[in-house]
Predict the structure.
Amino acid sequence: MPPRSRACIRAWTSSATSERTRLNLTQRYRYLYKPLVFVAALAPFVWLSCAALGLFGLSLGADPVKKLEHECGKTALNLLLITLSVTPVRNLTGLPQLLRLRRMLGLFTFFYAMVHFTVYLVLDLELNFRMLGADIVKRPYITVGFTALLLLVPLAVTSTNGMMRRLGSRWQRLHRLVYLIAALAVWHFYWQVKRDVREPLLYLGILALLLGYRLLRWQLRRAGRAAAASGAVTSRSGSATAPGRT
């Protein structure tokens, strides 16, 4: 067999193997990792539902409404921070497929935030919308939390592939609201706690690390682009001033 034919066969085999590996990885994320993440994200809701109904010996304690509110809100905050962790983990591990999980985590964040608000409105306020308006105006931590919930709505609505294509570059600018939402959510948690603020401060520290990582990456990319542009200008200037051929 001619050497050229053997080289073509090796290249084709390598390409086929690479494609097969990529498909296997895609299938694992679709049929294994995503279902596992779905089950893990849904587990707190199932546990709280069973406890609310008194199933399997579970209980929400002496104040079940406050317990439901607190646990749903805290789960929403946990998932929000996990969602923000996907990009740093992807960059540090070199696993771009992790981005396939981000949309699901973000939608579960919205789900738990809505359950948190629904428990507050239906079970705590008993659908008293006048009291709801008064709380939003007079109680700052509710004002902050309600603002974060409202900002989550357009992110959830525009999370589909169709909306990504329709909005184009505006989609990414819109979804940067998640950083503001995370800050408001931690602020809401901090103000809600009366005495021991160690846990809210822990969440604040985690959020600061996640945002600080993004700021550092942005500064490094900006410096890299500036260096590349400077090098291009220097190269063009050198070519312009070089003596012509004789």
Summary: Residues 186 and 203 are 7 Å apart (CA to CA). The radius of gyration is 25 Å.
